[in-house]
Amino acid sequence: MRHPTLIYRIGFLFLIVLFLPFWASAETEPVLMSASTTIIQEAAISQSDPLPKAVEESKTLLEKIDPQYRITSQQVLNKKKKKVSIKILLRDLNVIGLNPATNQLRNFIFEERMPVLTANRPVQKPPQVIGQKDGCVLIWRGGSRWGFNRDLSLTCGEEKIIVTGLKFAYPQSGAVTKIIKESYIPYSPEIHSEGIVKLGKEHLEKTIGQAKVELLQAGVRSRAFPEKPITEIAHPNFIKSLILNEHMDHAEFLKAMREQTLPKLIEKIWVIIGLNKEKAMKLSVSKAGACCLTQFMPKTYKLIAKRYPEAGLDKNIITGRQDHVNAVKASIVLFDSDIAAGWKAKTKDICGSSQDDLEKCLAASYNGGPGRLNKVVKKAGINWDNSKPTRILSGLKRETMVYLQKLANIKDFLKTKKD
After folding, report:
1. What are the pLDDT digits (tens) for 402-416?
2. Nearest-angstrom CA–CA distance, 373 and 360
């Protein structure tokens, strides 16, 4: 007769061997722990490319966070060396970070002081330490100093943390009465991965495709070319190139051309879009007031929404420009409006000689307005863009010249890019 204890041990070992693979592959659920920095996820992120999943989990976590803030005053010296009181926003800077060594997501809270009015914010240059707590250091390396899309590095002792989410209060339009709380996934070189680049490309392509479908379903016809639907005004690759162009800094582009790193710069924009999807560029506002994915000016948006009622554009100039599909629809409508109502006969003649010339003129018109395009075409004719030898200076602003240079290089890249 076998010894019962031995039989039980053998049976127990058999059960361990049988079920071990299932136990080993099971993912752990998010765990909240009480600490100076909170561990919120451990070993539940894909080892092959953890970033896309970590980003999505960070978004879920950010939704549950309610960042605190308060308004206070501070005495400062103005330009005339007189003491004046300015409003200061004291806010929690909630940061979600991924430790790539342990695949843990952690929530960090730093305090930040920010002048409410844009005019009172000092001009600062990176790098700069903007937060320290419990042995962790947050450094601003580039991008927006006070806004959402800022390049941040985070270290806790020897640990290097990848920032996968931000949430904080922000004074919309620099008004104390309009404090909003938003979350965003900022760009950093550490979060730049093939998986997220792909997400950005797919989102942009899907957005452009949906915008065209909605305009077709609404039966919107071109006023510049009445025999065509308005969607045939611009090729998807041109729209894509224009959006990438709008969010590419001129100085960064010129540097990338010198260093032959343009593909990386284009991917950076795709990463921002891939990280934030429909929230991408939502609060990206230029000094002139152009906003969001397609960088529309408020006055221009309001004009075309009224001029093309059949397009069914959102009449609200804020949400209309923030919504990606609606914003792309508005851009397509603007292309048509510029040609039909903005371009003079000579401009139409010169710009209509080829698809490439048409797109170049549309870009110049989009950037500098149809009125300026008419003036330079009248003055320089076919040499309006200075791309051909001429003794006549076209009169284009340097900004528009660089804008066209960016467009040409982005279009060339998209033509040769293989997925």
Report:
1. 999 999 999 999 998
2. 11
